[in-house]
Amino acid sequence: MDYAKYQDLKIRRLEPGILEIVMGDESARLSTATARLHRELADIWLDVDRDPETRVAILRGAGRGFSAGGDLGMVEEITRDFNARARVWREARDLVYNIINCSKIVVSAMHGPAVGAGLVAGLLSDISIAAKNARIIDGHTRLGVAAGDHAAIVWPLLCGMAKAKYYLLLCEQVSGEEAERIGLVSMCCEEAELQAKALEVARKLAAGAQTALRWTKYSLNNWLRMAGPSFDASLALEFMGFTGPEVLEGIASHREKRKPNFPPEPPNF
Questions:
Q1: What is the distance between the alpha carbons of residues 134 and 115, in angstroms, rounded to a whole number?
Q2: Does 136 map to a domain?
Q3: Are 194 and 131 in contact (CB under 8 A)?
Q4: I need a surface site. Which of 35, 86, 99, 145 has the fewest CB within 10 A?
Q5: Cα dihedral 216, 103, 110, 59 sign
Q6: 184, 159 in Cβ contact below 8 A?
Q7: Which residues contact 149 (CB under 8 A, 6 or more apart)?
Q8: CATH number at residue 98
Q9: Domain boundaries, position 165
């Protein structure tokens, strides 16, 4: 499999059967979901699925965090341009369904901030490992749009509806330790041990019975497929929100590094 077409994702073979996918550049502070990275995160799982040399993929972020969320320039383009909005909607949909339908096992290793499209892949991975210092945040409602992406399809299943509503409605951050406690991630560890732990888990999976593992993943992911209508609705409502007034205040508040001042009385939906 030729991964040369990927630019914002750095891909290398760690050892036979194990592929490493790194978001961003090690020299950068954080990996931001540019338009290109967003597209590559949607596409990569199709190639991993078809790659005869890969049994397990490890996903991690470069620099000081796992993922920093979407580029505000791209977000602003979505609010103005129908074609951009339609393109990013399709990529967001494909990212979720492609990782769910990827037959190979995916292990995520999350440290520091974990936000946006990177978080989608991180929490939808088959085994999710978070450093204790991870800061998981679904920031949709803080931006002024519905919590689409992966939120409706997987948070209630992982940590229960009560916790999902609390964190998604309030945009409260979840530490790696708390994420493990409530079942949002598979396990947590010290940041210094994160990459080694991810590789240890990947080695065990790569040495296992591949047909049995893949068919078990396929069967378990039917729980996510059954939640597909909830996800489709949430994603559609998120992108409808990109046409409204609240997201404009959300973007402005991010740029000005202040709390948002949303209209007190939206239309009665």
A1: 10
A2: yes
A3: yes
A4: 86
A5: positive
A6: yes
A7: 92, 95, 96, 116, 117, 119, 120, 138, 140, 234, 235, 238
A8: 3.90.226.10
A9: 9-193+206-256
